[in-house]
């Protein structure tokens, strides 16, 4: 008889070498290692744990009918069982070595991701084994925390190297504002400005004809005045005053009509276009280029806003066009009235002077309803 006590039912004769992931990493790692090496070793440990778990499950399925060998004094058939367990182990090991593992830089909640170059299912198994290792007292998560700061720095570096994709929805790509481009744009603006000034000067230099009448309660024929589109209104009134002196307008009322016209200044005369009193300081070009509309939605000065065509050859040099051929020569003379301001002040309460109003550039006359001084709307348009 031996003095050695019999083995207890709950104790095993052979102590199993089940170590956690952290213990195995601590055993295989010495000193400071690189992040790639640490991840490689950790993946190997996780794969080894998964392989041992599969082998243990396989051995348990094959030995369901046999008793527990750990409770016996001398385990039998250990070599046979181990040989049977080694066969699938070798096959799986060869298949695993044939695959190429690549490790991503991103981390999940339980640790770094594992990606297989050719087998997607291997990646899922590695993640499953990683989660199992993380369940052993949270030691796998602690190992991931050791390199979390390095992973963040690496992630930032990868994001900075990301390829910038152009936005295809943008229709026009702005040009680079280099010094040469800015200089070229400035030259183009200057060329356009000079071209506009030349066009404007050509329009202002174009001559037009304005037929008119003198008005003192009745229409007195005055003739036609030749002016340019860029002339001021006071210049037209000065020319009309000279025409009135030559024609002797008002001779039936005064024996010295020419002397009276010589005493009249431009400030004593008014230009009435339709029912609008045009101030002296306006150019005809202002109304032509802006197409200013008066009462009744009619243009105050209906003249062309384009430059005349250039005449080629020496035929058009130094020769002024005939007055009857100018634009506006066939207009109604009664549309333009030259009125003595003193007469207007005496009769502005009488018709038609009570309908005249001074031009206001801020006012819209196209929708205006004409009314008398009492506020009553007129039922005719004229």
Question: Could you describe the 3D structure shown?
Answer:
Residues 131-145 have a biased composition (Low complexity). Residues 73-82 have a biased composition (Polar residues). Residues 1-29, 47-162, 312-331 are annotated as: Disordered. This is XAP5, circadian clock regulator-domain-containing protein. Residues 88-97 have a biased composition (Basic residues). This protein is an alpha+beta fold. The chain is 41% helix and 13% strand. The chain contains 11 helices and 10 strands. It has helices at residues 21-28, 35-62, 78-98, 120-135, 139-146, 148-160, 179-204, 233-247, 257-263, 284-289, 341-347, and strands at residues 101-107, 112-116, 207-215, 219-228, 269-273, 276-278, 293-294, 298-299, 336-340, 357-358. A 6-stranded mixed β-sheet has the order 4-3-9-5-6-10. A hairpin with a 3-residue loop joins strand 3 and strand 4. The longest helix is centred in the N-terminal third of the chain and has 28 residues, at 35-62. It is rod-shaped and about 145 Å long. The model is unreliable at 1-11, 70-86, 88-120 and 130-147 (pLDDT under 50).
Explain briefly what this protein structure is.
The protein has helices spanning 21-28, 35-62, 78-98, 120-135, 139-146, 148-160, 179-204, 233-247, 257-263, 284-289, 341-347; strands spanning 101-107, 112-116, 207-215, 219-228, 269-273, 276-278, 293-294, 298-299, 336-340, 357-358. The chain has 382 residues and is of the alpha+beta class. Helix 1 packs across helix 2, helix 2 crosses helix 3 (78-98) and helix 2 packs across helix 4.
């Amino acid at each position: 008889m031996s003095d050695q006590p019999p083995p207890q039912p709950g104790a095993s004769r052979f102590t199993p070498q089940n170590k956690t992931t952290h213990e195995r990493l601590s055993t295989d790692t010495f000193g400071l290692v690189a992040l790639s090496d640490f991840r490689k070793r950790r993946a190997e440990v996780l794969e080894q744990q998964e392989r041992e778990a599969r082998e243990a499950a396989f051995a348990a399925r094959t030995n369901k009918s046999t008793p527990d060998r750990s409770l016996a004094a001398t385990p039998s058939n250990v070599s046979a069982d181990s040989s049977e367990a080694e066969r699938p182990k070798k096959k799986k090991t060869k298949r695993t070595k044939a695959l190429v593992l690549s490790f991503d830089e991103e981390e999940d909640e339980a640790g770094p991701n594992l990606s297989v170059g050719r087998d997607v299912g291997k990646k899922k198994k590695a993640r499953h084994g990683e989660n199992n290792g993380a369940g052993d007292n949270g030691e796998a998560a602690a190992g991931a925390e050791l390199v979390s700061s390095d992973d963040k720095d690496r992630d930032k570096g990868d994001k900075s190297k990301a390829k910038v994709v152009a936005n295809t929805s943008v229709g026009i790509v702005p040009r680079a504002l280099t010094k040469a481009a800015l200089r070229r744009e400035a030259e183009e603006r200057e060329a356009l400005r000079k071209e506009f000034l030349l066009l404007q000067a050509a329009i202002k230099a174009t001559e037009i004809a304005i037929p008119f009448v003198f008005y003192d309660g009745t229409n007195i024929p005055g003739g036609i005045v030749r002016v340019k589109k860029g002339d001021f209104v006071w210049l037209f009134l000065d020319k009309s005053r000279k025409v009135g002196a030559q024609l002797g307008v008002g001779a039936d009322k005064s024996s010295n009509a020419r002397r009276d016209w010589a005493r009249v200044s431009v400030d004593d005369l008014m230009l009435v276009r339709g029912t609008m009193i045009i101030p002296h300081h306006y150019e005809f070009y202002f109304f032509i280029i802006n197409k200013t509309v008066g009462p009744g939605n009619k243009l105050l000065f209906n003249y062309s806003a384009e430059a005349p065509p250039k005449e080629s050859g020496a035929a058009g040099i130094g020769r002024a066009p005939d007055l009857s051929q100018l634009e506006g020569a066939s207009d109604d003379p009664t549309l333009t009235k030259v009125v003595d301001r003193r007469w207007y002040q005496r009769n502005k309460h009488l018709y038609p002077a009570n309908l005249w109003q001074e031009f206001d550039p801020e006012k819209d006359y196209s929708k205006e309803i004409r009314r008398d001084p009492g506020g009553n709307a007129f039922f005719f348009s004229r």
